[in-house]
Amino acid sequence: MELNEAVHGRRMVRAFTGAPVDRAVLDRLCDLARRAPSAGHSQGIDLVVLEGPEAVGRYWDVTLPQPRRAGFRWPGLVVAPSLVLVVVDPGAYVARYAEPDKAATGLGSGPGAWPVPYWWVDAGAAVEHLLLGAVDEELGACLFGLFGHEEAVAVAFGIPADRRIAGAIAIGHPAPDEPGRSASRPRRSLDEVVHRGRW
Fold it and tell me: How many CB atoms lie within 10 A of CB 109?
């Protein structure tokens, strides 16, 4: 599949058949994600891959307990056979920018020194690589936030306390679903988005 086709065909899929995704396919998707750019080549992104009913079920038990599932708008999301948690390590960026070739930036003094915390930027790049890879593999994928459940998910899956979870990506074989409410919003035109020479 051509990149242009994958970009235009990508959308958030919120319903899955539940059929498992081959581990080799998940590995290819994770490999794409790890090849995303990172500031200073800090490589401060980790991926926690949850496969199968036990691991995926534990995630949903922590974030969407059974009593709340009856009213959940996207029940097909819960049957995704795989989830990938995108985890960032701010400390990896601070340590990298404390090294001699980056020390003059002042960003090695701590996370607060970063006017734009690039671990989030790099996580977004890794997510997009994975989402486009899913399209190329003819799979569906959906990025969603953990909101108030980040700490509980980190504890449940042994994620170190100094890391942050940027989001979760459900991956699987798509089932018929309805677009999210936001999908009906018109996309801004290229002329509205691009400012040439100045704003």
Answer: 13
CA distance 193 to 199: 10
pTM higher than the cut 0.85: yes
Closest CA relative to residue 162, chosen from 92, 63, 106:
92
86: β partners: 47, 167
Supply the CATH classification number for the domain 3-176. Answer: 3.40.109.10
130: Cβ contacts below 8 Å, ≥ 6 apart: 29, 30, 32, 33, 84, 141, 169, 171
**Tell me: the pLDDT tens digits for 139-194?**
999 999 999 999 999 999 999 999 999 999 999 999 988 777 787 889 899 999 99
In contact, 92 and 43? CB cutoff 8 Å: yes
